Amino acid sequence: MSDLSVERDGASWWTPAVVAEVAEMLASRQSRLWQLVDPSDLAEWVFANHAPAPLDPPPVEAGGDWRRGLDEPAGQAWALAGWVVRTVVPQAAGTAGQTWHLSYLENEAVLRLTVGVLEILGLYESGEAIWLRVHAAPIGLAMETGAVDLDEWERRGVEMLEDGTKTLAEEKFLVRCPDLHTARWLLRQPPVIAGLRLLSCWVAAGPYSFEGRYRPEVVGRAWRASELLQEAAVSPDAGADDKGFDRQYAGAAATADLPAQRSFDADAYRAGVREHDRLCRLLIEQLARSNVRAGAGLAGVDVDLAWRDREGRQFVAEVKSIGGGNEADQLRLGLGQVLEYRHRLAAAGTQVIAVLLVSACTTPAWREVCGENGVLLLSGESEEMWVGHLRAATVSLSGARSTAG
After folding, report:
1. Cα–Cα distance for residue pair 372/145, rounded to 1 Å
2. First and final CA of the chain: distance in angstroms?
3. pLDDT tens for residues 288-304?
4. Cα–Cα distance list, 10 to 6, 13, 118, 145, 196 (Å)
5. Which domains are seen in the chain, by residue range?
6. Which positions ≥6 away from 301 have C-beta within 8 Å?
7. How many angstroms separate the CA atoms of 222 and 102, rounded?
8. Residue 130 exposed, middle or buried by CB count within 10 Å (0-12, 13-18, 19+)
9. Which of 124, 154, 365, 370 is 20 to 30 A from 96 via CA?
10. For the packed helices 190-204 and 136-145, what is the interaxial angle rounded to 10 degrees?
C-alpha cells in the first residue's frame, strides 16, 4: 500500500489504516457498483495516482467535431469537465447514465456533473467560475500534515463556501475557483482529487434516479474534449518522463479566406505562416536528436512549443517569423506573449523557462532585453547551436527566475 502514498516534506498525509477505514465504509453500502469493482479496490483507487481513465473505449462516441461552435475558453471548460469525469468517477466509462451524468444547461452555458444524487462539479462554459464538492476527510488529513495550505488557496482566490445540499451535509466542502487556471492548480493537489473521488465513490454506491437526464452527446463531447488535458497538464508532480506538452505539434495552415483590405499582403501572410511552421519543426527536430520530445500547448495555455529536458526542466517557446522589415514589431510581440504565458503558467503552479525563437535578429540589444527579462532568445542564424544555447542558459535563467521570485 505504501507505494500509493503521496509524500510531502518526508511525511505521508494518509496511511494504510485510512484506506482500510474507507474500504469498510464503502462496503457497508449495498450497491450494484460492487458488481464492477470491489470496495477495497475502490478505496485504494481513492488515494492512488490520479491518472484519468483511458480515452478509449469512451462511454459513447462523440459525433462530428466536438469543437464546433466553441471558442477557446469554452473548449477548455468542456475539456476540464471531461477530465474531471475521467479522473474522479469510479468506473466512469462503463457507468455513464447508470451512476452519473454530465448535463449542459444551454440557456445558462453551465456544465454540471452529477454522481448518484449529488452534483459534484459545476462550471460556466466561459470558465469564469468553477465549483466542486469534495469529501472533507482527505482535506482534513492533508491539513494536519501540511499537505494542504488553505492560506495559499485564499491567495489564489479559492473559496470555501457554505453548502446547502443535504447529502453528507457535515462531511463535505463546497469549493469555488475564480477561473479555469486556478481550478487546474487546485486539481493538481492530491488531497483534492482524493476528496472528489471519495465523495464520488460514496454517492455512486447509492441511489441514482436521473436516467432520464442522461444525454450521450454531452458526455461524448466532454470525454473527447478532455484529450486537450494530458496528464502532464494537471498531474501533481510531473517528472522528466512526462511529455511536457498538451498535444503533438500539428502546424498551422494559412486560411483560404484571406482579408480583402488593401493594406493586407496575402503573400507575406502565407510566407509568415510557412516560416513559423519551418522554425517550429526545426526546433522539434533539434530537440529530438537529444531524445527530447516537444509538442504544443501546456496546461491549457496555447504556447507554440513546450517540452521537458532530460533533467525534467519545463520549457515553453513563442515562435515568430521575421520578414519584410517587421523585426522589431515581431520581437516586441513575441517577448510580450512569452512573458504572458510564463506568468499564466506560474499562476497555475507550473514554473517554466521561457524561450523566444525568431527567424533572425539583427539588433544585438534584443538579446540583452530578453536576458534582462529571463527569456532565452534563439534566432535562425545560430540554428546549429540552439540545443547548446538551451543547455548553457538553463542554469542562469532558472537562477534568475528564482532570485526574482
Report:
1. 39
2. 37
3. 888 888 988 888 788 99
4. 10, 10, 36, 10, 24
5. 2-231 (no CATH), 266-404 (3.40.1350.10)
6. 316, 341, 344, 345, 348
7. 8
8. buried
9. 124
10. 160
Q: What is the dihedral of CA 19, 25, 26, 28, to 10 degrees?
A: 150
- Name which of 28-42, 219-233, 314-328 the model is least confident about: 219-233
Encoded amino acid at 248, one letter = Q
* pLDDT above 70: percentage of residues in the chain: 86
**Hey, what amino acid is at 307?**
W
pLDDT: which is higher, 33 or 384: 33
- Summarize pLDDT for 237-284 with one digit per residue, the tens: 333 335 788 777 766 544 444 444 444 456 666 777 888 888 998 899
Each residue's pLDDT tens digit, 62-77: 777 888 888 888 998 9
Residues 26 and 17: beta-carbon distance below 8 Å: no
Burial degree of 267 (CB within 10 A; 0-12, 13-18, 19+)? exposed
The verdict on whether omega for the bond into residue 191 sits within 30 degrees of 0, i.e. cis, is no
CA distances from 128 to 16, 181, 210 (A): 38, 10, 27
Give the chain's mean pLDDT: 83
Residue 58 has pLDDT above 60, yes or no: yes
Residues shown for the chain: 405
Cell of 55: 480515452
Judge contact between 210 and 34, C-beta under 8 A.
Answer: no
Q: Write down the residue that cell numbers 521537458 correspond to.
A: 308
Give the separation between CA 258 and CA 100, rounded to whole angstroms.
45
